[in-house]
Amino acid sequence: MAALEDLFASGHRACAGCGCALTLKTLLRVTGPNVIIAQATGCMEVISTPYPESAWKVPWIHSLFENAAPVAAGIEAGLRATGRKNDTKVIAIGGDGATFDIGFGHLSGVMERGHDILYLCYDNEAYMNTGIQRSGSTPYDASTTTTPAGKLSFGNQRPKKNLPAIMAAHGVPYVAVTSIAYPADFTKKVRKALSIEGPKYIQVHATCTPGWGIDSAMSLEVLRLAVETAMYPLFEYENGQITSVHKIKDRKPVREYLEKQKRFAHLFKMPGGDKEIEKIQRIADLNAEHFGLDVKPKGKEAAAGKQ
Amino acid sequence: MAAKMKVIEGSMAVAEAVKACRPAVVSAYPITPQTHIVEDISQMIADGEMQNCEYVRTESEFGAASMIQGAEAAGARSFSATSSQGAVLMYEVLFSIAGMRLPCVIAMANRSVSSPLSIWNDHQDAISARDNGWIQLWAEDSQEAADMIIQAYRIGEDHRVLLPVMVNLDGFIITHTYEPVELYDQKMVDEFLPPYSPVYALDPKNPVTMGSLAQPEVYTEARYMIHQAQLKAKEVIEEVALEFKKKFGRYGGGLIDAYRMEDAEVALIAMGSIIGTMKDAVDEMRAEGMPVGVVKVRSYRPFPAEALRAALKDVKCACVIDRDISMGMEGALFTDLKAALYGKSKADILGFIAGMGGRDITIDDFKGMARKGFARIRGEKVTDMEWCKLDTDILPEGS
Ligand SMILES: Cc1ncc(C[n+]2csc(CCOP(=O)(O)OP(=O)(O)O)c2C)c(N)n1
Ligand code: SF4
């Protein structure tokens, strides 16, 4: 079997183990060459296009930090108006900062107006390119350079913004949350999104090795733990309704996820850290309950209501 | 075939010109006094007069500018319009569009910028966007604004230029005034303005990367190329104006225009709709035997330094009227003109800040400015820069 040509070429400047770069590579394996990409400022833009090099073998444009969505919408409108849309897919890509914060209003406008684009947010849970500052996607208690843990602080004191629900509330046909540690799930969701006309939003959990403080070899393992602890539930919304969730058998305690990352290391050292970990556990429990993530035990135990 | 003459609002004249240019994408966000332009276009689309045009009602001017950036990058001719706060909100995208050499066209219905909030006309919005790489053309009346839209696409899309163009028209004074305007014969516009043929476009059959990260080794060169394109545009602007005249019988473009400058000792220099009033002032003064003329700057960027030097070569005093202020310095046109004439002209130059935030400027005001020019020539004491009609009574004590 002939090897697939990578449309996102190796030789880019991402750190070893970068889950976000892996996301882009995998994305293009799904899309193939008939695609145009608009990308926001951020790590993935910077590592892939230092002039005169480019890792992109598909047409690609970076304009600004906050406008990947409307630029993509403009591309789509331009193609349509000039009769060149054909089967070309238009994809906007942004990090969580670009998506949850600065580009949010424009993303919302594009979603609401029904442009036929896929918006892909690679969620590494902080502004990485500027040196690990907190974004609206940074999880509770994570230490970042603008929410550092310190004598008086456990790090970021706000919960993660629920962007997928906000996107779904726009009434768009498809919203999905996935993780690059689950390439089959990721592939399936991207493929599905691209088969649907109209605005689509996919959020993919992807590691930043220095940002999270993990060894590059641990990237996928840590991402899997996020899913297995219900810290990062994977699901789909279709036309505003949740239509699938990735179930978890034997959900693991959040400790197992937190202890592997430096951004949460303070919780295991500081007095009161245990209590904070309990709070995070409750966040995971609520996720599990809300999405019905736990595989229900069968037989007698279930009848007795034991879990 | 003769074109029709019609009494219409300035905004409608611009909308008619846009329609004749067959844009593929128009993005819109309301702001006074620009709104009528995009409303008129939306009506034309609703009436089926603009087929194959995607009209996008965006969530903000930032989105509107981003839309046309994407469309233009995809190889589609595009248009938007804005004013004041909208222009300022577009600011970051305007740089990005020029940096990528995307020849979008925007109509800028000039208006003052908050705060204090004012919806009335002055030039602060466009002047504040002076250095972002956009070509800036300035219209005197509706006809010129409309003619400039058509020329703007020709200029910007010329492969020697490849820059976006902002056509400035004074808010309310032009946008909301009904004047007779000669409309366009579509066939003639089609002959004048060929379909958009970008050098590069986003296309899966021929993938390119646009908007790369530039290291210090290449950034200066990229900026240098934009500057060179601006300089080149001076020729192209003149060329296109002449060709337009040949085709449509009107000279509604070019870098500058001179009025009664043949033996002028004092010149009034400005941009936009005040030129009309200035001409009236000059006519009255000429009748009194005073040698005064008007120089209209149509292209502010690129700045027509050579043309202005030539037009002002025999003038003894140039009076520059700015409807903007570069805070802590002076009016922008005043500074630029002095720079252009430095070491190359003996003319004295006076600056006037006038008509900010919609304040009226009358024939008498212009006559007063010209008289100051003559006083300066006679060696009387005249300040270099003056705030015209400044109401000191309403200023707090000590200012
Ligand atoms: C208007 C604007 N503000 C700030 C920046 C600086 N900036 C560049 S990249 C970046 C962080 C991007 O974060 P994110 O979107 O999460 O992507 P990541 O770097 O994590 O890939 C910031 C703040 C900018 N380029 N533009
Ligand atoms: S800093 Fe993080 S997101 Fe950026 S390239 Fe490195 S691992 Fe990837």
Automatic annotation (TrEMBL), chain A:
Keywords: Oxidoreductase, Pyruvate. It holds the Pfam family TPP_enzyme_C. Residues 41-204 form the Thiamine pyrophosphate enzyme TPP-binding domain. InterPro entries: PorB-like, THDP-binding, TPP_enzyme_TPP-bd. It comes from the Archaea. GO terms for molecular function: pyruvate synthase activity; thiamine pyrophosphate binding. The keyword Oxidoreductase applies. The keyword Oxidoreductase applies. It is an enzyme of class 1 (oxidoreductase). Its EC number is 1.2.7.1. PANTHER family: PYRUVATE SYNTHASE SUBUNIT PORB. Heterotetramer of one alpha, one beta, one delta and one gamma chain. This is Pyruvate ferredoxin oxidoreductase, beta subunit. The gene is porB-1.
Automatic annotation (TrEMBL), chain B:
GO terms for biological process: response to oxidative stress. Residues 16-240 form the Pyruvate flavodoxin/ferredoxin oxidoreductase pyrimidine binding domain. It holds the Pfam family PFOR_II. The gene is porA-1. Keywords: Oxidoreductase, Pyruvate. GO terms for molecular function: pyruvate synthase activity. This is Pyruvate ferredoxin oxidoreductase, alpha subunit. Heterotetramer of one alpha, one beta, one delta and one gamma chain. The keyword Iron-sulfur does not apply. It comes from the Archaea. Its EC number is 1.2.7.1. PANTHER family: PYRUVATE-FLAVODOXIN OXIDOREDUCTASE-RELATED. Residues 264-365 form the Pyruvate:ferredoxin oxidoreductase core domain. It comes from Methanocella conradii (strain DSM 24694 / JCM 17849 / CGMCC 1.5162 / HZ254).
